[in-house]
Design a protein that fits this description.
2 copies of one chain form a homodimer. By secondary structure, chain A is α+β, with helices and mostly antiparallel strands. Among the domains of chain A are: 41 residues, no CATH class; 158 residues, PurM-like C-terminal domain (Phosphoribosyl-aminoimidazole Synthetase, Chain A, domain 2). Chain A has 9 helices and 14 strands. In chain A, the strands form 3 sheets. Chain A has a 7-stranded mixed sheet, with helices on both faces. The longest helix of chain A is centred in the middle third of the chain and has 18 residues. The mean pLDDT of chain A is 93. At the A-B interface, helix 2, strand 1, strand 2, strand 5 and helix 4 of A face helix 2, strand 1, strand 2, strand 5 and helix 4 of B.
Chain lengths: 347, 347
């Protein structure tokens, strides 16, 4: 079989895995599109979702996996435990599904303090309760000291697709309105400040939170939602690029409508980061037909996690595959996908 | 909430995670029973299965997760890729279910050769094809050099419980016959020889293989099967202890009926290991009512992976919770669960 003989990624050009392969940006996509999809390829995998959807007795189930390698393990606003539970809940929610069950795989480094593991486990329990889901199966492995980094957690989840929902990154249409449920950059900046030891004047905390509640509210208003996506690794900029390529449409963002807290904006200036590329862990992008946008926005704003929600742009038939941002003075620039690794191990 | 205040494992006695917490033996059980079950506890988790079973529209689905940290990554007879696919297929099969879909979570260390990743991916593809299942969703993370050990893979799987099957470690009954589908110790000794650089006269290779085919054959004979279990970490000895405690029965094994290849027996003597405690990755233990044992054994022996299958013991109402082994000269001794970490990072 010739796929065995030749690695589909040219080894002379990319001899080893780099941190950028885990960034969620260009090299992550390279690995997925050149290696994983050709090898494992099937109709369900090819959808390009954060999760797969399959049917059991006519019922659609959503299925998604995520491993968490965040460093440091404890950070302002959360820890690797609630992050791992919320992250998989959110990927299921972005399939238009209600999360039901999670599995948990712990990979522990020899020497991890027992008390730290307990704090993480308690956070997972509380996050599961908050979102109304159950952790029903698990696995624990231990690696020798120096062969891991304290703790890695895989969470995999199953949810039931909400009746009538048809969500896919391929579904967005020219004219769609793009709603963002809150401020961007909080998670990435919280991690970065914890990692660098920089203390900002005001306390910036991770936005880690479950999105299933807000998704339920959206579907109470209408089933006519095209795309749901949480902008994690690679931030809003990378997520927008993925979606406009999947749907073969263009996206126009309006810079002055994108909510960024003054604290995050200030920290980004100090750290030389662009909030558009920074990971979020409790924010949702909603692509909805323009006619439905106002009632959906109102429903989101009524939810406790959505009071900073805003319309940040729209979808166009022009420049398919390209994201453009118009600035407050009316100029416009192209927003690319993340290249390199602006912030490794952010989740 | 007082569970937050006090770690349920006394920190003065167990201040940190040790390799033995990942061995599958006594300390692994300690972690699961004292920490994870009380924290995450629910009816599905409490079953004590390798997987959980839940219902969708009246259809029972089996759900199980496993992370693979085997070292070295490539070993005689396989690599971490086919091991990860087969391992989760086997845990689903041991729920009496037909595996359908897998998710894959890669945790890669910066610097992993691209060609090594490709070899692993090809093995996973081939293992999935062999077992007739699909890999439908995935995730990739990268950790910085020195914070991982080449590659860790999580696989999580979903299967449909075979109509009429009712498999649980709680189901074994006095009088049940215990069938083992082949020789023990092959996987663990293959890893150990690769790790230590010892070369044995004859080539010992891992038995990594999918068990769904053999489980299908068993259920063609009868649905009256009580327990199915693949004796991985901790080996046959530990698995037997788990089952007899779950079902509150005693187990009697007959030493001279347990198949061990002469090569593995010889290697174990050199390495000072007991084959009863060594991990297997393609063997199945079947607990079946005595009346059904002969046709089940015949069906297993007809399967290509089952030609060394044998009846190795039976279940008794005497000494509940205790595994005894009778030797060829008629004496009898207690077989305990694995303590410590005879072979860390075996899967």
């Amino acid at each position: 079989m010739d796929y065995q003989l030749v690695c589909p990624i040219p080894i002379s050009e990319y001899p080893v895995i780099t941190l950028a392969h885990g960034s969620g940006g260009v090299l992550s996509h390279h690995l997925i599109e050149k290696m994983f999809i050709p090898a494992f390829g099937n109709n369900l995998l090819d959808e390009g979702h954060d999760g797969a959807v399959f049917k059991v007795k006519g019922k659609q189930l959503a299925y998604t996996t995520d491993s968490f390698v965040v460093s440091p393990v404890f950070f302002p606003g959360g820890n690797i435990g609630d992050l791992a539970v919320n992250g998989t809940i959110n990927d299921i929610s972005c399939c238009g599904a209600r999360p039901l069950y999670l599995s948990v795989g712990f990979i522990l480094e020899e020497g991890l303090p027992m008390g730290d593991l307990w704090k993480i486990v308690v956070s997972m329990k509380e996050a599961a309760e908050r979102a109304g889901i159950e952790i029903i199966t698990g696995d624990t492995k231990v690696v020798d000291r120096g062969k891991g980094d304290k703790i890695v957690i895989n969470t995999t989840g199953i949810g039931e697709v909400i009746e009538g929902a048809d969500i896919s990154p391929k579904n967005c249409k020219p004219g769609d309105t793009i709603i963002l449920t809150g401020t961007i950059g909080d998670h990435g900046v919280a991690i970065m400040s914890a990692r660098s030891g920089i203390e900002f004047e005001t306390n910036i905390v991770s936005d880690t939170a479950p999105l299933n509640g807000i998704v339920d509210e959206i579907f109470k208003v209408t089933r006519n939602i095209h795309v749901l996506r949480d902008p994690t690794r690679g931030g809003v900029a990378t997520t927008m690029n993925e979606i406009c390529k999947s749907s073969n449409v263009g996206i126009i963002l309006e810079e002055n409508r994108i909510p960024v807290s003054p604290e995050v904006r200030g920290a980004c200036e100090i750290l030389g980061l662009d909030p558009l590329y920074i990971a979020n862990e409790g924010k949702l992008l909603v692509f909805v037909p323009q006619s439905e946008a106002d009632p959906v926005l109102t429903a989101i704003q009524k939810h406790p996690s959505g009071n900073h929600a805003a319309i940040i742009g729209h979808v166009t038939a022009d420049h398919p595959g390209i994201v453009r941002m118009t600035t407050s003075i009316g100029s416009s620039r192209i927003i690319d996908m993340l290249t390199g690794d602006q912030l490794p191990r952010i989740c």
